[in-house]
Amino acid sequence: MIKKLGLACVLAAGSAAVQAQDLSAVDCSNTVTQLEMNACAEQDWMAADADLNAAYGAALAVMQDLDAALPRSEHGAEANLRKAQRAWITYRDAACAAEGYAMHGGSAEPLLIYGCRARLTAERTQNLILLSNVL
Predict the structure, then answer these.
(1) Does the global pTM surpass 0.90?
(2) What's the rounded Cα separation, in Å, for the pair 105 and 84?
């Protein structure tokens, strides 16, 4: 029990030190440490997420227009897109958590998870763009 508590304290102290570092100035074209690689992977995912949010907003507007052109009793495009997006987010997060298990508990686990999230998010963004352009 004492060993576990001691390890928890060491991990917590290490985590606080990592959080205190400013990773916003990391040169992602020349990462050296695992911490930098993880930070850059997170930045890639955040950029992909911003693109996804823009594409989702555009697709949502298309669905709202479709609903507006139908009798109220036939509305459902917007609601179904929202439902699909929520389900997709659940899928993405679970799929990427599973992918992260290749390095579970290690310092590279976040790299795998963020990389997966960025990849799947970029794919979803393209699907939403296609949806918006087809209709």
Answers:
(1) no
(2) 31
C-alpha 1/C-alpha 94 separation (Å) is 32
Interatomic CA distance for residues 96 and 90, integer angstroms = 10
Token digits of residue 1:
């029990």
Q: Which residue has the tokens 């790299």?
A: 111
Contact, 96 vs 113, CB < 8 A?
Answer: yes
Structure tokens belonging to residue 122: 């970029």
7-47: pLDDT as tens digits: 444 344 444 444 546 777 889 999 999 999 999 999 999 99
Reduce the secondary structure of the chain to three states and give it as a string: CHHHHHHHHHHHHHHHHHHHCCCCCCCCCCCCCHHHHHHHHHHHHHHHHHHHHHHHHHHHHHHHHHHHCCCHHHCCHHHHHHHHHHHHHHHHHHHHHHHHHHHCCCCCHHHHHHHHHHHHHHHHHHHHHHHHHHC
Classify residue 69 as exposed, middle or buried by CB count within 10 Å of its CB (0-12, 13-18, 19+): exposed
